[in-house]
């Protein structure tokens, strides 16, 4: 374990139970504060994605810093946070089948809250419209545009503009504007590529909106086309796309923790990563190999977000740049080390995971290193939500 973190901690290393998912509160709060300051500086709303941390304590920090609401991917996640007091939640995922019914049940259960969702296809928008009319409510909905990830989303430009016009005519829908996620930035090889992706992320939405605005008043809505919102997400690109004039909302998630992927992309330096995994060496069966007690059930099997395979191993061992976590089984991590390494059985290693989001989702709680060196426990209340 690095001397910096060890000096701040009231407990000794020998007292630590491992593997431990540890969050440095001061670094976490700095990350939260700086993103909120960025949003204020550029006049955009901040609606952070909960998928990274899934904890109420961090959501409270984000809301207190100025977030206008929260973003999630599952109705189960939305339910957990609505139960805790969230009042504006965007479910940024296409809800189909019985999930449409469940969405409106949640709206009825929490009438004081605003629930929003997205669509990228006319048939799906029509299904949402029919359900909204049947319930006698107006549903806030966003049009998801594909800015290059090639996942969910309609092609930007005239195709998206035409779909927006058709959606605007549907009763029961209050179309907010355009939304995208440039997740393919995680596969970028250089900061220049990240910048190009972030710029296109914003401009493809703004150009699509301009096509809609050229049609003038949207007859079936009370709002004018000029008031449409433009929402971008993705931690690697948010400080690029979020700074483009005309963008009105940002939805980063990973920024609260960051990870080895953000380091590789040049988004942050290692010292800004607020989440680490502490793991103890349980065996050194050979001079060039150790085994640690953090396996796939702790570190996850990601080699990088969105299918990127650009990272070596399954996390960065801080202070041991030549050590590589080569293999993971469920409870074991096999690490290649130099034969002259001084690592011994019983040593606690500090690991920056490749992707912090699944690491948080794999644990029941986060151990938080407070400002005074004490440790607190924050429950990951929305982990494991599958529906």
UniProtKB/TrEMBL annotation:
- Would you tell me the protein name for this molecule? Alanine racemase
Q: State the SMART domains in the record.
A: D-ser_dehydrat (SM01119)
The answer to whether keyword Nucleotidyltransferase applies is no
Gene3D superfamilies listed in its UniProt record: Alanine racemase (3.20.20.10), D-serine dehydratase-like domain (2.40.37.20)
The protein's matches in InterPro entries, at most eight in alphabetical order, are given as: Ala_racemase_N (IPR001608), D-amino_acid_metab_enzyme (IPR051466), D-ser_dehydrat-like_dom (IPR026956), D-ser_dehydrat-like_sf (IPR042208), PLP-binding_barrel (IPR029066)
Q: Where is the D-serine dehydratase-like domain?
A: 274-370
Q: Which UniProt keywords apply?
A: Lyase
The entry sums up its family as follows:
Belongs to the DSD1 family.
Tree of life domain: Bacteria
């Amino acid at each position: 374990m690095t001397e910096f973190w060890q000096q701040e901690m009231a407990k000794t290393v020998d007292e630590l139970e491992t593997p431990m998912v540890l969050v440095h509160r001061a670094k976490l709060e700095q990350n939260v504060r700086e993103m909120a300051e960025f949003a204020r500086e550029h006049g955009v709303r901040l609606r952070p994605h909960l998928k990274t941390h899934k904890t109420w304590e961090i959501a409270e920090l984000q809301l207190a810093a100025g977030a206008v609401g929260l973003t999630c991917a599952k109705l189960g996640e939305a339910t957990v946070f609505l139960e805790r007091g969230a009042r504006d939640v965007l479910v940024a995922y296409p809800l189909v089948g019985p999930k449409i019914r469940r969405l409106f049940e949640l709206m009825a259960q929490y009438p004081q809250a605003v629930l929003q969702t997205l669509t990228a296809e006319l048939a799906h928008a029509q299904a949402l419209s029919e359900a909204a009319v049947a319930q006698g409510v107006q549903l806030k909905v966003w049009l998801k545009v594909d800015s290059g990830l090639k996942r969910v989303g309609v092609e930007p430009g005239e195709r998206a503009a035409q779909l927006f016009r058709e959606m605007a005519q549907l009763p029961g829908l209050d179309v907010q504007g355009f939304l995208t996620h440039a997740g393919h930035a995680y596969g970028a090889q250089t900061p220049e590529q990240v910048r190009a992706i972030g710029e296109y992320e914003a401009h493809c939405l703004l150009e699509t909106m301009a096509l809609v605005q050229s049609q003038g008043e949207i007859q079936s809505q009370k709002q004018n086309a000029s008031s449409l919102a433009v929402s971008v997400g993705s931690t690697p690109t948010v400080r690029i796309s979020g700074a483009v004039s005309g963008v009105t909302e940002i939805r980063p998630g990973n920024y609260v923790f960051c990870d080895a992927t953000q380091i590789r992309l040049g988004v942050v330096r290692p010292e800004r990563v607020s989440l680490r995994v502490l793991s103890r060496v349980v065996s050194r069966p050979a001079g060039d190999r150790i085994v640690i007690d953090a396996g796939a059930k702790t570190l996850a099997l990601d080699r990088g977000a969105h299918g990127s395979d650009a990272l070596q191993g399954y996390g960065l061992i801080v202070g041991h740049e030549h050590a590589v976590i080569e293999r993971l089984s469920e409870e074991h991590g096999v690490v290649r080390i130099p034969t002259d390494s001084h690592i011994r059985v019983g040593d606690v290693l500090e690991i920056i995971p490749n992707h912090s989001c699944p690491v948080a989702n794999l644990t029941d709680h986060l151990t938080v290193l407070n400002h005074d060196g004490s440790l607190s426990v924050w429950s990951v209340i929305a982990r494991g939500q599958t529906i």
